[in-house]
Amino acid sequence: MSADPFKDADLPEDPFDDKDDPTVGVISEPVNEVHIRIQQRNGKKCLTLVQGLPPKLNLKKVMQYFKKNFCCNGTIVEDDAAGRVLQLTGDQRKVIADFLINEKICRKEQVKIHGVL
C-alpha cells in the first residue's frame, strides 16, 4: 500500500490547470524574424541570403537599392519553405542588417545574422 505524501498539502486540484490565466489561448502578435545568412560557393565567392522580410515590402525596389548602393548583383528567389528570398553576391550581411534597422523595416531584435562576421 502506497502512502500519498501530498495528502495533507493544501494544493489546488490540478497544479497545471490554467483556467484562471487570461493569457492562455490568446495568440500574440507573431514576431517575424529576418534571417541573413551567408552561403559559400567556391573559393572566395559567397552569396548572402535574406529571408523573412515583411510581405508588404516591395522586394523589387529593395533589390534595386541593394544592387546600386552595395555594388553587387542579386535576384529574388521563390522558395517553398522560406518564401521569397533575396540572394546577393558577396558578403553583404552587415550592410543589409544596418539598412533594415535604419530604414525601420524591422527592429534590431528581429534581425538574425547567421555565421561569423
TrEMBL record:
This protein's UniProt keywords: Initiation factor, Protein biosynthesis
Domain SUI1: 34-104
Region of interest (Disordered), ranges: 1-23
Name of the protein in question: Translation initiation factor SUI1 family protein
Family: Belongs to the SUI1 family.
SUPFAM superfamilies: eIF1-like (SSF55159)
Keyword set includes Repeat: no
Transmembrane segments: none
GO molecular function: translation initiation factor activity
Biased composition regions of type Acidic residues, renumbered to the chain: 11-20
UniProt feature, compositional bias: Basic and acidic residues: 1-10
